[in-house]
Amino acid sequence: MNGIEMRQIVKRYEGHPVLDGVNLSVSPGEFLVILGASGGGKTTLLNLIAGLAFPDSGSIRFAGEDVTRYSPGRRNVAFVFQDYALYPHLTVEKNIRFPLENLKVARKEMAIKVDETLERLHLESVRRKLPHQLSGGQKQRTAIGRALVRNPSVFLFDEPLSNLDPQLRDHLRAELKQLHRELQKIFIYVTHDPISAMVLGDRVAFLSSGNFRQVGTPEELYHRPALLEVARSMGYPPVNILDRESWLSVFPGPVPDSARQVGIRPEDWIAVEDPRGLFEVDWIQSVGYAQFVSVGFLGGTLWASVEKGTAVRVGTRVNLKLSGESPMLFDGSGDALPADREGDQ
Amino acid sequence: MKRALNIFFLLAMGIWSLGPFVWQWLTSVKDPAAVSRIPPLLPDMPIWTNYASVLQNREFMRVIGNSLAVSLGALGVALIVGSLGAFGISRFLNRRKHLALLTLLVVFMIPPVSVVTPFYSLLVRLRLMDTLAGLILIDSVFCVPLVVWVMVQVFDEIPDSLYRAARVDGCPAWTIFRRIYLPLGQSGLISAGLLCLMFCWNEFLFALTFTSTYAARTIPVGITLFSGQFEFPWGEISAATSLVTFPLLLIVVFAQRYLVRGLAGSGLKG
Q1: pLDDT digits (tens, 9 = 90+) for B149-191
Q2: Phi and psi for A16 in degrees, rounded to 5?
Q3: pLDDT at A31
Q4: Hey, are the CB atoms on A78 and B168 less than 8 Å from each other?
Q5: Is B118 on the interface with A (CB under 8 A)?
Q6: Over the stretch A101-139, which tens digit does the pLDDT of each residue have?
Q7: Per-residue confidence band for B60, with pLDDT thresholds at 50, 70 and 90
Q8: Distance (Å, rounded) from C-alpha A219 to C-alpha B221?
């Protein structure tokens, strides 16, 4: 196994477990996104992988080798920080050369590697500029260049795209994905933004209260969430969650006995104009390619989609109709009911 | 009206604080016979004999040399020990950081007179009485905390991610200090260093108490010894004083920016 293996990782801060027995395998060349709320232990996990902190118990293996207690320098990982952490007093060129100097690489070889990296990331024209003179994209590329130049086996990203304006963020996401295709190295990207997670990840690992709650492809997390919490965190407008009784009052039909909560994505629920409908539209939201309406229901809000060219307006009475995708079912503790049991009972 | 008031107060402040310096300089270029006579307020012709006699005074030259040695020595110790200490406090102490800084602050709060006796016996035991090394040691006691205070503020502003990035890039802590923190803290170091220089250059009490010969006497002590038993050579005293305040004046004029930052960083915040 050439990837990363983490077994039973526990990390406490002041007695409080931040990571509580985490297991994770990352295959070679995989782009894994770790998704979770702020303060949920994501950054701690990255620090443990990088060697910036050590677990209280558990083991970390890189390509079979136990690196749990290795210093960061011995692990050959690269870390791209949220603020990029470029050394402000060094030029682009010197930032990129910095890690090589610590490795005691021969001067000539160093120059060649730096030049290669600058060229690969299209940074030759700014090689003598200081970080504060760079654009957002150039900063990210310099940060990646500094990581790349050592030829690391793992790249770690700590929400580097979270504070940028949307256009730049999309551009940098595309660059990152492209780079991953070229390098075929392990990328582990941590974020609290479900859209980044869905767009970037080969797999997404959902981290909450100190452990992974679900690891799977973005589609799996979106369409077959293992937990109510996962369902809620993915997608916009947010998933509709109704308790059993409310659901049955709207959609009389078979729901397994063990299902306490029912979830349905807005795009799977179509609002159809009906003068005697149960709901009244109080907001129409267009996201360009589609339109969503919100309707009040039992003191809460439900989201549904409308078909193109519909006459639905604010104040129109509507009924909601399922578009075919079956609803997600959860038991009393928020765990999803296994898909194969749907409809059995 | 408001403007006139401002100018008035500025002038008053200026005369209040610069007056003594001007007076001293005037005295230094007056004929010794005319020193205590007013008028004339201004000498007809500046005479430079006072300066000549000070500059030919071997003992005074020795004293200037001593002051340079003590100031630069203590400065060196303070910058090295203080910046390393600040790095440690800023980087590795979390909840105890405040306690560490307060402890160092106590050093400034203690009236110097109260520690003369312990310092005296310490220097006797170390056989450092009347030596430059002894004065360097004592001045460092005050300069190191000063540097720590200024530099902790400076280092605290360096983002944590830079430290972590350098760790991932394979740097041990020492290299991070040398290659990232020191260059980024440069202006802070200059501020702290200037404050130390001014402290050491002017320090009088310890220099007086712990020296007994010209082997280690510094300028403030040397100047007081100008006066003999029965006479006060005001002209020479003034010339000597003008000479040795000149470097400080240069510092204040040309490095004002750094001084203000150092004082603000160490005193007002925190």
Answers
A1: 999 999 999 998 999 999 998 899 999 999 999 999 988 899 8
A2: -95, 125
A3: 95
A4: yes
A5: no
A6: 888 888 899 999 999 999 988 899 999 999 999 988 889
A7: confident
A8: 82
Going by the DSSP 8-state scheme, the letter that residue A336 receives in this structure is: B
Q: Do A85 and B170 touch (CB under 8 A)?
A: no
For the stretch A70-97, pLDDT in tens is 998 888 899 998 888 999 999 999 999 9
Q: Quote the DSSP letter at residue B32.
A: G
Structure tokens at A198: 């869905």
Q: Average of pLDDT values for B45-57?
A: 83
**Token digits of residue A276:** 């005697």
For residue B37, being part of any structural domain is answered with no
Is the residue at B101 inside a domain?
Answer: yes
For residue B244, is pLDDT > 70?
yes
Most B-contacting residue of A89, A140, A155, A156 (CB-CB within 10 A), to test interface: A89
- Spans of all domains in chain A: 4-232, 237-341
CB contact under 8 A, A77 and B184: no
Q: Look up tokens 């050959």; give the residue.
A: A76
ipTM of the complex in this document: 0.79
State how far residue A147 is from chain B, nearest Cα, in angstroms.
Answer: 8
Out of A47, A50, A102, closest to residue B171 by CB: A102
Q: Which has the closest alpha carbon to A77: A143, A140, A154?
A: A154
User: What is the reported pTM?
Assistant: 0.79
Residue A98 with chain B: CB contacts under 8 Å: 166, 169, 179
Quote the tokens at residue B230: 């029965």
Distance from CA of A150 to the nearest CA of B (A): 9
**B117 belongs to a structural domain:** yes
Based on the structure, what is the number of domains in chain B? 1
Cross-chain CB nearest to A87 (options B162, B164, B172): B162
A237-341, which class in CATH? mainly beta
Matching CATH number, A4-232, of 3.10.129.10, 3.40.50.300, 1.10.3720.10, 3.40.50.920: 3.40.50.300
The DSSP call for residue B169 is T
Which residue segment(s) compose the domain that B142 sits in?
61-222+237-268
| B88, part of any domain | yes
